[in-house]
Amino acid sequence: MPNIVVLVKQVPDTNAKIAVNGGRVDLSAVKMVMSPYDEFAIETALQHREASGGEVTALTVGGAGCDKILKDAKAIGVDRIVRVDAEGEMDSNALQTVLAKAVTELGAEVVYCGKAAADTGAGSTGPGLAERLGWASVSNAIGASFDDGLSVIAPSGAGNAKLNVPLPAVVSCDKGDFKVRKPNVKGIMQAKKASVDIHSIEVPASTVTVTSHSLPPAKPAGKTYDGGAAAAEVAQLLRDEANVL
Amino acid sequence: MTQTIVIAEINNNAVHPSTAELVAAAMAMGDAPTVIVPCTDASVANGAGNMGAGAIIAAKSAAFTHYDAGAWAEALDAVAPQGTLFTGASPQSKDLAARLAARRNLAVIQDAVAIDGNSITSPVYSGKAMQTVSVNGPAVVSVRSNVFPPSSGGATEASVLDTTGNVATSVAEFMARASERLDVGEANIVISGGRGMGSPDNFVHLEAIADTLGAAVGASRAAVDTWEAIPHAMQVGQTGKTVNPSLYIAVGISGAIQHLAGMRSSKYIVAINKDPDAPIFQHADYGIVATWEEALPVLHTAFKTMLG
After folding, report:
1. Is B18's pLDDT higher than 60?
2. Residue-range domains of chain B with CATH
3. Is A111 left (phi over 0), alpha (psi -120 to 50) or beta?
4. CA max distance for chain A
5. What chain B residue is nearest to A167 in terms of C-alpha separation?
6. What is the value of ipTM here, to two decimals?
7. Looking at the complex, does the CB of residue B43 fall below 8 Å from at least one CB of chain A?
8. CB burial string B187-225: b at 16+ within 10 A, e below
9. pTM as predicted
10. How far is B285 from chain A (nearest CA, A)?
């Protein structure tokens, strides 16, 4: 029965407006939520548990403010919730080193995570963690089955491929053609009572440091036309002015 | 100067032209890079000639037959010099960048759109802000396409190095895409429909224009969620694909923040919507306030005349 870990991360609500003050992103007025792709990872982890037994542990790295998304994960149905207590900016190297230690401490055989966190959009954590652990990895999975060992469906070339994945492995999850379960009343009640296991792990120094944030350069105002007949003129401008045809 | 290495982008068993953009990105940080071409047949590496490389290495291995992140990272690590490595920013290349970085205990910076020495800028929060970082020492950097002007000249001959990697995953079956059409993530022109198209049947009008332009057909999340006939593979936006084409045509799409996140970095944006207050118009280079029924036939005729 596999010991399953799912990585979750707290990020700003994806519908929130992002403000920059003094050269830094200012998130003080922004609602924080679980990164949307993590919901697909939790769903896949729970399906894995249903197929083969075992236990699902949701793991995050952050300060006490991140306990909320762990409780959200608990309400959806994970068994245990664990937070590595660490705050401040970390580069990918520092974060993955911490996660590799935590996953080893938890005795995991398979790790699921979102294909990317909604804040950085980087998608580095899953494959980077796998490399550090010496495990197999598949990224951007859109489906998984557990009947005869783990197999996942992921993009390959111009289409998709069904891949057999030997454990231990890390699988990063994209939105697939499945519905994610939502918390029910029982789950929410259990989550309220659940306690977060806190792990302390030393964070190595980062070699990449954020120097500034800025808003994306504003696009010059475009031209707007009334009525469908203007489409002919727009087509001509795409060739003559924009040079894209 | 920083020693730089470019991992060539491979598509259909050939070096993709965007590799020349990666060379330019590497030269914004350091010397002319060594370009490493992952291949099963060393002659593929000839395609990296005249892209501005300082040297070209054909990294030849059976491990490169199918993509396995761990095997590719291992096989490339064995032949790549030390220094800062550059890859493309396709989903597969970002995955490889992350594994390569971890293998060498380096940090990875994804989706670079500007490089100035050790200072690297990439979009964060789905493009709602830009983040600039300072890199101390070697790193792995993935670079967005259509940002750096391709470099030329340089090395033409590749030296061949045999390498090997341990392939963990195996392909049980390949599943053809439901549609024979170009993928939105790969196309240079994308035409997308939203719920304003009224019905999934009306997407045939977008497909007709796509055929004329050699474009891919995309869709908004609202369209994908509303109509079963529109598959998730077509979705552009936060929970779909991020696209960066030269031309993006949004038809009947209001421009929710979810959608903008996936297409705002397109070079030129055309919006067709009957609602003059639709947010998409604030991001469009060319906006047409009209129903799709009015605008699309005119647009299609104009494209056909121009390109016919």
Report:
1. yes
2. 4-162 (3.40.50.620), 189-307 (3.40.50.1220)
3. beta
4. 66
5. B168
6. 0.93
7. no
8. bbbbbbbbbbbeebebbebbebbbebbebbbbbbbbbbe
9. 0.88
10. 4
